[in-house]
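Model it.
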Amino acid sequence: MRVAVDTSAIIAVIADEPEKARLIELTKDAIIVAPPSTYLTR
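Modeled.
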């Protein structure tokens, strides 16, 4: 399953916000799709 996430969800995980565990649980077996602004390309 593909799950689209926005920047705030990624920041919540990186910043160890209270929602982190639930976000990881919901996306455990998913393919994460995120906007290009959230990753580096070379």
